[in-house]
Q: What sequence folds into this?
């Protein structure tokens, strides 16, 4: 496929995902995974997990961070620009339109009901992501992965530790375990 076509498809897919998604970066990442991993097969699932971790740990909006990484992976700098532009165009247009009618929009009871209903949908999508990623971790049959997953959950849900510290700790454990595995293989 020609690079021009890939860039156009990347832009259109990101525009579509961004325009018809409500609920923030994690929901968009889920749809990006379905489109670019499962559908188009432009990205491996493991790479998408890495992109998700990097997008979450980088400063800024998760959706834009993920678009940067996905675009770069698919088509370099031009892909990054196409993906980001497709991601930010719908929110800019919607927020610009809403800013003109904000007063009526904010106080409308029916709009409030719609937004509450959308929140329930967002919870369902996030639950789906957690179950899908958790199932993949369980298939690894690695005690280290099980312990990390349980520790990350407890650190967030029970102790309220900032996600950034959890990610940094997981990175450190990953680096240490890779170093240990390499040394162990070298002694064999």
A:
């Amino acid at each position: 496929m020609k690079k021009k076509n890939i860039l156009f498809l990347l832009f259109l897919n990101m525009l579509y995902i961004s325009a018809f998604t409500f609920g923030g970066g994690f929901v968009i990442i889920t749809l990006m995974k379905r489109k670019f991993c499962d559908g188009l097969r432009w990205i491996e699932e493991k790479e998408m997990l890495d992109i998700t971790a990097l997008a979450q740990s980088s400063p800024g909006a998760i959706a834009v961070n993920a678009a940067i990484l996905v675009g770069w992976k698919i088509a370099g700098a031009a892909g990054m620009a196409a993906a980001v532009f497709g991601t930010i165009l719908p929110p800019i247009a919607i927020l610009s339109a809403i800013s003109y009618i904000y007063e009526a929009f904010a106080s409308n009871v029916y709009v409030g009901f719609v937004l509450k209903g959308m929140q329930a949908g967002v919870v369902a999508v996030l639950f789906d992501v957690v179950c899908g990623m958790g199932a993949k971790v369980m298939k690894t049959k690695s005690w280290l992965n099980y312990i990390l997953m349980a520790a990350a959950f407890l650190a967030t849900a029970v102790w309220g530790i900032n996600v950034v510290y959890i990610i940094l700790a997981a990175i450190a454990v990953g680096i240490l375990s890779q170093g240990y595995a390499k040394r162990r293989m070298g002694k064999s």
Notes: The longest helix spans residues 62-100.
